[in-house]
Amino acid sequence: MRLCYRIAFLLLLGIFVAGCKEEKVLVSGETLPDQVVIGFTLYESVSGNRLYKLTAREAVVVEKEELITVRFPEVIFYDEVGNVSSILIAQEGAIFTRTENLVARGGVEVLTADSTILNTDSLMWINHRREVFTEAPVAIRTPRGRVAGQGLVADASLSRIEIISEVRGSSDYEFAP
Q1: Which domain does 102 fall in, by range?
Q2: Secondary structure of residue 7 in the 3-state scheme
Q3: Helix (H, G, I), strand (E, B) or coil at 71
Q4: I need a surface site. Which of 18, 40, 129, 139 has the fewest CB within 10 A?
Q5: How far, in Å, CA of 175 to CA of 53, rounded?
Q6: Predicted pLDDT at 13
């Protein structure tokens, strides 16, 4: 009879332990966030002129690392007169608070005011140069054609684009004689 109780006790203990949620243990050197913000918004401007507005579902702020990581960011870039020049969306990103550079990763898409669409896996906004940059494969679609390649440097409105290598594409553009 005692053996039955011991077996029943061990089974119940096993079920209880298996049902417990695993707790995350802080690894040595890992930094806890200073803040977690749901519904995050950040505005960046220079001399009163808007550069961009970044919104995200969630932001994790780690002041010691001068870093804010964001989930599902949307960045609205503005031109010199305050009009929307492009909108960037991605699955995740990071804001480097010291430099104000931005990184977007995962399904990055940029849509411009003139209907140009850029797709890539990662893209970095270099704030002091006011340029976007990537070394990843890129694909650009415009109403007049398509181009793809490896790597890119461009302004936020994609009106000036330099594809770094492996350029290929097609267009219906006709040159004047």
Answers
A1: 31-170
A2: helix
A3: strand
A4: 18
A5: 38
A6: 47
